[in-house]
Predict the 3D structure of the following.
Amino acid sequence: MNENAYTRRDFLKAVGVGTAGAAIGLGAFGGARWARADPIYKGSSILAKAAPIDRGGPVVISGGKVIQPRREIRVMRETDVLVVGGGTAGVIAAISAARTGLDVTLVERYGCFGGLWTGGLVLIVLSTHARVDGKLTKCVRGIGDEMLERHLKIPGGIINQGPGKSNPTSDPEATKYIMADMVRAAGVHVVLHSWVTNAIVDGGNIRGVIFESKSGCLAIKAKVVIDASGDGDVFGAAGADNVRHVHRIGLVHRLGGVNTVDRDKARKAGVKLPRFGAATPIPGVTWVNMQGPTADCLDVEALSKIEMDDRAAIWKRIAEIREIPGCEKVFVLDTASQLGIRTSRTLVGTHEVNIKEVKARKTFSDVVAVGGSYSLTGGAPCLIPYGALVPVKIDNLLAAGRCVAADNLMLNYTRLIAPCMVTGHAAGAAAAVAVADKTTPRDVNVAKVQALLKKQGAYLG
């Protein structure tokens, strides 16, 4: 296979985006000016004379063991609501709480928002609608729907979004931009490139988190913490009861040049065309959802091996595709910047979303989120009670997104993008009410939470 026979540059020209044109178009975006880098390096400004970042002194070896000395950790800031994880659930939780006027901080380990929706290239927003009284009804409303609607203003931002349409597919770069813009507009304080490593717990109450960054190890103190990390990193560190899971782990990727496939050539050669994945808003581009092996998503060695194996498998497959007559111009456009983790750790909450209650169409007086239908729900909406967000033990803490309390079947539902939207919205509203009323999320007035959600446009049935 000649890997250079058809390049990304060829593809951009084919879809009408020349490289020079792209630069000119971006030049007017947001008033920014774009120019080629100066080939002559002219040095940098000096901030300090080799001032070391305080990491508490070196780690030492004592008696053959690696010992980290006791140290004081600098508190970077104090906030009303701290959201850990800038994925779908975390971003919406932060926006919800910030729109009530509170001081909200959002910590994310990567450099962009969206989690698996963007960085993981899981581009389809499943379970946005459900059949209610025989009518297709939108369940994702409020902040989540506002986010989806904004994609319509960006050319190539989304498909299958609008009246009478469900389960849209978005462009990841459009989503990253929209999320960042909404977070800024809400006044959320953002901390990117920071990995939360521990929880600050005092007498059964979480008071904040510890995180590592290029600025060293820092702390953020908060009145309420929302764990939207996806893996339950915060409630796991805090000592809240949780369940560990093993699941399939894949590496999603996008293919380009799919619109160049010569189907007549393949037919004349008597070959069957492969599956190219699902459509995206960009013509000729599809996204391919790899199932991957079953493994422990909290095992770093397993994650490292899967990342390497999956990347090799992607390139092996594209080589096979390009050997098929008519498919010579198909290429790998990009691979996800993070592995497709389906589940790893879920909360043991005061109520668990379980398949028995879903099939029985059980209703709850404390419903705070309603997700659209999925194969597991039998076409009906899924009602999520407040208890699915609240730990059995540890106060001032809420969960949102794929790590909420759900049984081994329903976690395959609560991890989807649309359900993450609605549980994130619920967690943000609950945290805001708890702070405003000077109480804990466990003791919060759920009726007030429901009222705030409705005020912010959420659908509760």
In short: The first strand starts at residue 60 and ends at 62. The longest helix spans residues 300-322. The radius of gyration is 24 Å. DSSP finds twelve helices and 24 strands in the chain.
